Amino acid sequence: MSEESPGNRSTLIAAAIIFAGLLIGGYFLPDVINYVALFSPWLAIGVGVLFVLAVFLVFWLRGRYQRRHGR
User: Fold this and answer.
1) SS3 3
2) What is the residue-level pLDDT of the chain in tens, covering all 71 positions?
3) pLDDT of residue 69
4) Among 6, 42, 46, 50, which is most exposed with the fewest C-beta within 10 angstroms?
5) What pLDDT, on the 0 to 100 scale, is given for residue 42?
6) Which of 16, 24, 28, 22 is nearest to 57 (CA)?
7) Residue among 1, 16, 5 nearest 62 (CA)
8) What is the rounded distance in angstroms from the CA atom of residue 38 to the CA atom of residue 36?
């Protein structure tokens, strides 16, 4: 393999962390939604929507960080 640039390595690490977070969150999401639904079905829907929005928020913040630091 050829030598990788530090920016490439940082991108791979960030992608792995984001992917792991999504896997862990997605794994526990049904249990969390079922627990919250015992109190309120609307709150359970809100938890699911917040999880989906959090995914987009993470990518938006990452893109903003990269633009700000010229990457």
Assistant:
1) coil
2) 456 666 688 888 888 999 999 999 999 999 999 999 999 999 999 999 999 999 999 989 988 988 888 76
3) 83
4) 6
5) 97
6) 22
7) 16
8) 5
C-alpha 33/C-alpha 59 separation (Å) is: 23
What CA–CA distance (Å, rounded) separates 58 from 20?
Answer: 13
Residues 6 or more apart whose CB falls under 8 angstroms from that of 36 comprise 43, 44, 47
How far is 38 from 32, CA to CA, in rounded Å? 10
The CA distances from residue 4 to 12, 26, 32, 41, in Å, are 11, 31, 40, 49
CB 55 within 8 A of CB 22: yes
CA pair distance 2, 26, nearest whole angstrom:
35
